What we know:
Layout: H1 16-33, H2 47-56, H3 69-88, H4 90-94, H5 103-128, H6 134-142, H7 159-177, H8 186-214, H9 218-237, H10 249-254, H11 262-280, E1 290-292, E2 297-299, H12 305-315, H13 319-332, H14 334-355
Antiparallel strand pairs: 1-2
Helix pairs in contact: 1-8, 3-5, 5-8, 7-8, 7-9, 7-11
The chain binds benzoyl coenzyme A.
Amino acid sequence: MYGNDFPAPDDASGGGLLGEVEAAEAALREAAARARRFGAPTPDADLDAYFADVIEADQKIEPRDWMPEAYRRTLIRQIAQHAHSEIIGMQPEGNWISRAPSLKRKAILLAKVQDEAGHGLYLYAAAETLGISRDELVDLLLSGRQKYSSIFNYPTLTWADVGVIGWLVDGAAIVNQVPLCRCSYGPYARAMIRVCKEESFHQRQGYEILHVLAHGTAEQKAMAQDAVDRWWYPSLAMFGPPDGDSTHSAQSMAWKIKRFSNDELRQRFVDMCVQQAEVLGLTLPDEDLRWNDERGAYDYTQPDYDELMQVIKGNGPCNRQRMEHRRRAHTDGAWVREAAAAYAAKREQQKEKVAA
Ligand code: BYC
């Protein structure tokens, strides 16, 4: 129970999503302890076949291992996009730090936004193991050549939006990320374990904000409902285009980077949210949402994928503002990077002096 008064959003039977993260963590440890079934390939080995065997045996690819160039590029694209999302994702909530309704709410929100920065750092570090530097990755974001999640191009208009970001956006993020804990690339899978555990706390804090608002005054409840109405479809769109239009899914699933398709995860998210919305006493804005006995899942209205494509292309409500803010923060932070580099050079010189 969360707060001893209502069930936690991820407290489903069978251990819920956090249970799955723990199982993935145990599997990672077990794989690390197990001797590698395939030693290093011999000089005349067929490297593609060797790689396929490692993937087939569900063993992890590590930075030292040979990997196809396309696998490496796909991972850089996805991990970098994920890292950028965490960093840009600090902005919509950061917008409310100075206006949080109490000191306690402010402290919690500060901690959450700092966690997002931490997630960005784990992910940039994971991407760097693939032979690209953090400077290059930041440059790719700032020049618009790499993307970040569509969801962070929507504005946070009221305090209830902070609750909804926790409940729906972090909720969607967890549903997407729990399977990534079993991704074939070791550093990404390991980063995901920690990220998912922290996201679970994020989701709970959002859920609790909404629970308080939904059980408060009529105005507070209306504010919570309005936020849910605005964020529901953009949250569904976070999972990406429908399977038929997903360019990367088939290959990423064959490589065991992705374990489920975009539509499978979207469905899982919808099924999870229906019961949670009932506990909150809020309505999901979809008149066609109903249980389908035959499918054993809820039927629901798809998000507007044309809108998703527009937002991805840079034409969402806040794209320009988010990028301007990030570029300014990067420029303003130049002196920190310079100071860190100067300090590192000085330490290096001192070490050389001692060694001489
Ligand atoms: N937004 O072939 P597809 C967080 C692009 S942070 C933007 O299905 P894929 C949080 C896609 O890149 C959560 N672009 O692609 C942080 C591709 O474009 P290109 C972020 C999208 O990679 C702070 C094209 O559309 N989570 O939770 O197989 C505060 C075709 O798509 C989006 C991650 O990054 C989108 N929504 O599947 C609070 C998770 N969707 O490169 C919370 C890791 C698709 O061909 N990423 N595109 O031009 C993934 O799991 C996968 O990359 C995706 C997309 C499911 C997102």
